[in-house]
Design a protein that fits this description.
With 176 residues, the protein is an alpha+beta fold. The chain has a single domain, classed as 2-Layer Sandwich (Heat Shock Protein 90), CATH 3.30.565. It has three helices and seven strands. Strands 1-2-3-4-5-7-6 form a seven-stranded antiparallel β-sheet, with helices on one face. A hairpin with a 3-residue loop joins strand 4 and strand 5. Helix 1 packs antiparallel against helix 2. It is globular and about 45 Å long.
Amino acid sequence: MIEVDIQASKTSFVSLSEGIHGDCQACGKWEQEGRTIRASLHLEPDPQSASRARRFVRTALEDSEPTETLDVLTLLTSEVVTNAILYGGPEIALVVERRETGIRVEVADAGPRLPLKRPLDVETTGGRGLRLLDSLAGGWGVTELASGKVVWFEIETHPKDPGTSPNGRVPPRLYL
C-alpha cells in the first residue's frame, strides 16, 4: 500500500460524502491545518482514474480558483495521473493542497520508474506531459520513496486577503 503522509495525526479527516456532496463516490478525504487545506483520493490504475482525478481537482477547487487556473490544474493532473496509470504500480494516490500562495498536486504510485522526457515526435500522441509541466507549472519534481515515487507540481496563486481564496471569495466548501 502506498503511504502518503498528509499529517493525519495533527488534524481530523472529514469525508466529503458525509454531508457536502451527498453520496459522492469521488470525493476522497479532507484535512485542514491552519490556512492549508489538503484533499486526498486513492485511484485504481485504470483509464477511468484520469477522469476521476480531473473531476476531483475541479470539484475541490471550483469555489476558490478562477476557471483558467482550474483548466491548467486539471490538464496537468490528468497528465501526471495518466503517467502513473501507464508506468506506475497497482495503487495511485492523489493529494491536492491549497496553500496561501498556491496549489500543489501530488500523485504517488508504487512504480520504480522515474518520469523521463522523451524526444518530441510529431507522429505520436504521447510524450508531451513533462513538456506541459515545464511550460504550465510554477515548478514540478519527483520525490523517490522506498516503494515508488511522488510526482508533484505547483501552480502559484496570489490571495488578496489571507482569510480568503486567491480570487477574493471565501470558499465555504473547503472549510471544515
